[in-house]
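Extended Data, panel c. Modelled sequence:
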Amino acid sequence: MYHPLPAGLLTALLLACPQASTAAPLTVPHRTISLDGASRLLDAAMAACHADGKVLAAAVVDRGGNLVALRRDDGVGPHNTIAAQRKAYTALSTRTATRLLAANARASTEAANLNTVDTLLLLGGGVPLMADGELIGAIGIAGAGGPATDEACAQAAIDNVFRKTP
């Protein structure tokens, strides 16, 4: 049989329990890359690759891994739009540039298992975006001529945009 507690007893129990009065907040503040920031990164990535005569696909994801912006040149293979997004997601998820992640996976049998995670792509070209030590998103480049070139275009975009940001 159900017997409800008297209201006064329930209040006394809640006041006596320190965790009840100092509960953790239900939300946490965080920063993430904006659409404007993503657009500036894509402009800078396109300019950096075009300066070297390369074409590319580029994607930026926010800190939750959601696609914020995507751009691709004419003539870039259609698989590169997906690859750019997956490289960005991988860099975000692992907080590691994907070229370094790929090298680590080749060097370690334990890390090699990362290749079995469907959403990750262990190819160079994905770089995490940090602002004041906080992960705010990632950029991924694909189709510019290989992992080193893809990463160089991504890093050039980051250096260009974040150097100019107050």
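The CA atoms of residues 35 and 68 lie 6 Å apart. This feature is highlighted in the accompanying rendering.
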